[in-house]
Amino acid sequence: MNIKVDKKKFDALIGEGYYKGEKLLLVKPQTYMNLSGESVKQIVDFYKISIEDLIVIYDDIDIEIGSIRIKPSGGTGTHNGMRNIYNLLGNAAFPRIRIGTGKVFPEVELKDFVLMKMSEEEVKIVEKVVENVYNSLIEILEHGLGRAMSIYNGKNEV
Q1: How do residues 62-110 score in pLDDT, each as one tens digit?
Q2: How many CB atoms lie within 10 A of CB 156?
Q3: How far, in Å, CA of 66 to CA of 127, rounded?
Q4: Distance from C-alpha of 138 to C-alpha of 117, rounded to nearest angstrom
Q5: Burial class (CB within 10 angstroms; exposed 0-12, middle 13-18, buried 19+) of 56
């Protein structure tokens, strides 16, 4: 979308742009992942974003690598960043796109797993998944969450 995500505000890098007349904010919190809600809360409050218009995209070890799952709302699962967003917003009724990373090595502690370098094969899978996430966002913007869910949930690049 050619939106540069390079403005520093609200403990985040922010990019502002438009898609078919609708204003979009792309936000990359710069807090520790477990404190992502601090940044999200500031942005939601400042821009007066309705909870239904917030889409959170995050990695999820509970989903197989190569998959995405789009949901209109839900719990936080094992993701501490999502737990922090929920706790600070006081509401989990926002759409989310979960990007599967899978926990391939069950004997490795979670904190070590998330910091591991990806293999070349995993990098290729993630590149394709990122393309699917982008396409699913366009689908959400143009045709709604339900249609995006029917197209992209269950799609796996492995």
Answers
A1: 888 889 999 999 887 778 888 999 999 998 899 999 998 877 667 778 7
A2: 14
A3: 9
A4: 30
A5: buried
> Who's near 117: CB < 8 A, 6+ residues apart?
none
Identity of residue 146: G
- DSSP labels for the chain? ------EEETTEEEEEEEETTEEEEEEEE-S-GGGHHHHHHHHHHHHT--GGG--EEEEETTS-TTBEEEESS---TT-HHHHHHHHHHT---S-EEEEE-----TTS-HHHHTTSPPPHHHHHHHHHHHHHHHHHHHHHHHH-HHHHHHHHTT-B--
The answer to whether the CB of 86 falls within 8 A of the CB of 26 is no
The partner residues of 98 in beta bridges, in order of sequence, read: 58, 69
Q: Is 34 left (phi over 0), alpha (psi -120 to 50) or beta?
A: alpha
Q: Could you report the per-residue pLDDT of 118-136, keeping only the tens digit for each?
A: 889 888 998 899 999 999 9
